[in-house]
Amino acid sequence: MLDDLTRLIGNREIPLIVAIMLVAGLLSAFMNNIGVAALMLPAVVTVARRSGTAPSRLLMPLAFAALLGGLTTLIGTPPNLILLGFMEQQNMPAIPFVQWIAL
């Protein structure tokens, strides 16, 4: 998979950042964001080494994308589930599964 990514995108830093952020954001919408970051960390470091980019230039966008992706759905981060339970206890209307659709 890493070879496919680097073959498709090349060694350019900005396209690598965009691809990593898209994958991390999509995964963290349906998985725990910390789990996504831990899952992708070795792959991103390997891609950084192969492309000659400093790992920190790819790891920070990975972290931000995982955090932001987790906020888009109810299951992405545990606080979203806690908030939903609290809202149900208070007889408040439930927030939709995908929050950004309601915006």
- Return Rg in Å: 16 Å
Count of β-strands: 0
Q: Which outline best applies?
A: elongated
Strand coverage percent: under 5%
Amount of helix: over 70%
Secondary-structure element order, N to C: HHHHH
Largest sheet: none
Structural class based on helices, strands and sheet pairing = mainly alpha
Which parts are unreliable, with pLDDT below 50 for 5 consecutive residues or more? Answer: none
Distance between the termini: 35 Å
Helix run count: 5
| Chain-averaged pLDDT | 83
What would you say this structure looks like, in words?
This protein has 103 residues and is an all-alpha fold. It contains five helices and no strands. It has helices at 2-9, 13-30, 33-51, 55-70, 78-89. Helix 2 packs parallel to helix 4. The longest helix is centred in the middle third of the chain and has 19 residues, at 33-51.
Quick structural overview:
The protein is mostly helical and 103 residues long. It has helices at residues 2-9, 13-30, 33-51, 55-70, 78-89.
